[in-house]
Design brief:
262 residues; Rossmann fold; four-stranded antiparallel beta sheet; 11 helices
């Protein structure tokens, strides 16, 4: 499997005091399902958002598909973002629009500003949107406004919007933090299926250790902006949890499983 993403000595500094990321190094292979875990404020979100340059790293290199993302100008950045789908904790949908309109928004990165503003989509794009919504079990909701949906349905619309970009990679920022256990399982099952059946690389931030252990090919544990674990789920024992979460939390795994902090 080829390497799709690589972090080389990446750091992110906010102001003179706060170091959100310190010398991060890791690589992700094509088609891999990687979870990033760690306590609140560990730098998980910052790390994820550096990949598509929603946040700019202060130093180091982020290489995606052989190109150094850190050096990209506006036009290259737009192209990059079409190849990396993003799924957010709070969905980021346009509530007054229908499900299918929200999914079609995933095509905006491919369009001129005018075509995007006028909502001009091809029949092929509409067909694709319909097929994706069928895969996600939302065919009954296609013409519903998004503010009429449950949280789990909204997150599936968010996944659909990312998939219609035809991405190489999905970045998921705490995608189940706002959902109940049943909806969470459904979202994680869809993400795993997308990874295994479509070959799309998935990088997901999770608060729930048990979920990370169940779904991931690989886990990256982050604490205070540093990678303290990078390996297979089977390698995570009490010692590793202590280095990621600190001793008092690691001793209470059951509590970790139920943690839903943002």
């Amino acid at each position: 499997m080829t390497t799709l993403l690589e972090f080389k000595n990446v750091s992110k500094q906010y102001g003179s005091e706060t170091k959100a990321l310190s010398n991060i190094n890791f690589a992700v292979k094509e088609g891999e399902f990687v979870s990033i875990i760690g306590p609140s404020g560990a730098g998980k979100s910052t790390l994820l958002r550096c990949i598509n340059r929603m946040i700019d790293a202060s130093s180091g290199e982020i290489v995606f598909d052989g190109a150094n993302v850190s050096a990209f100008k506006k036009k290259e950045l737009k192209r990059l973002r079409t190849r990396i789908g993003m799924i957010f904790q709070h969905y980021n949908l346009v509530n007054r629009l229908s499900v299918i309109e929200n999914v079609l928004h995933g095509r905006l990165g491919y369009k001129s500003t005018l075509a995007g503003a006028l909502g001009l989509y091809t029949d092929e794009e509409k067909r694709q949107a319909f097929n994706i919504l069928q895969i996600l079990g939302l065919e009954e909701q296609i013409y519903k406004r998004c503010d009429q949906l449950s949280g789990g349905q909204k997150q599936r619309v968010g996944i659909g919007r990312a998939l219609i970009q035809a991405p190489r990679m999905l970045l998921c920022d705490e995608p189940i933090a706002s959902l109940d256990p049943n909806a969470s399982k459904m979202i994680m099952d869809h993400l795993k299926n997308i990874s295994s059946s479509m070959g799309i690389t998935v990088v997901v931030n999770l608060h729930q250790v048990d979920v990370a252990l169940k779904y991931s090919d690989r886990i990256i544990g982050v604490n205070k902006g540093r990678v303290v674990y990078d390996g297979v789920p089977e390698g995570i024992q009490t010692d590793e949890l202590q280095s990621i979460y600190g001793s008092e939390v690691a001793n209470n795994l059951s509590e970790l499983g139920g943690q839903h902090a943002g």
